[in-house]
Amino acid sequence: MIDPSPSPLVQIREITKKFGGVTAVDRVSLDILRGELFAILGSSGCGKTTLLRLLAGFEEPTSGRILIDGVDMTDVPPYERPVNLMFQSYALFPHMTVAQNVAYGLKKEHVPADKIRERVAEMLAMVKLEALAGRKPEKLSGGEKQRVALARALVKRPKLLLLDEPLAALDKKLRQHTQFELANLQYQLGTTFVVVTHDQSEAMTLASRIAVMAEGRIAQVGTPGQVYEFPANRYVASFVGNINLFDGRVTAAGNGQLSVKCETLGSDELSVMSAGEIAPGSTVCVAVRPEKITISRQAPEAKDRNVVKGTVWDLAYFGDQSLYRVRLKSGAELQVSAQNLRRSEKLTVEWDDEVFLSWEVASTVLLQS
Q: The sheet that has 257-261: what strands, in order across it?
């Protein structure tokens, strides 16, 4: 992905959309930078598709403004916006060939025939479909249909391309491959892409930045690394990836570090890094990702680590890694993800083993509620 310009191409200002008494998008403000691949991530019903339709002009906002390249587009109809939308269903014309599908938008705009042939050929080469130019959609695979829809959306050279769950119709292996193709194409073109998805791994793989939506609002905006490693609140932490969450009470604070008592973890206190001032007695939520935890039948020797004990209650072997569910004396369960670094038929930790779980103090995340 290209390094985007610091200037925003899209400026969303206090946008609200209500359907009757239901607020689908609630006072959203957001800047999308010129040349970046931006993802809007959220569960079903969070408002992400409504926000995309507001950008495309298919919905009118109840209040607020949308600017694209400095021009107020709030009341501009879809066909006059420098925007194109690639639908989840691809919406290809079944009676047209691949080349005719890609050329359709240019013909509607009365672009000269020689220019149409030139631009269609250029775009088909870019998505590697030159050999299929004369084929109709019924003869194409899912991945090929996706690339035709993408070429059709891009051939008009929009300033902004909106993609609604663009890879949802593909199987897992093809989806993973196409993610890299899509990111590489965006890099080559420099067009600003906005992808709406509910798939966390898709957003993390594709996007230079991610906006996580919840109940019509933006919960956090950041790079994939920021959203995953430094979630803004409990919702983002639990929605993006797997995580272990504990409620606790601060027992001591000083030198940028807290001691937190979590009843579910037993007698030992957790050490947590903290940039702010949190007084002893305060209730907090702390978390740790499964892959940050080391599991062993021997007690760890390293200092400056949080350590708890438990029993392996369940495990799943995935080849490259194993996922453990470890039950503590309190009945609470922790998830641990361990890479299988050695080639072996046997796991180093098995069902019913008593184990030590440890992780670095810096890997413990302090969360807002």
A: 270-273, 257-261, 244-254, 283-288, 365-367
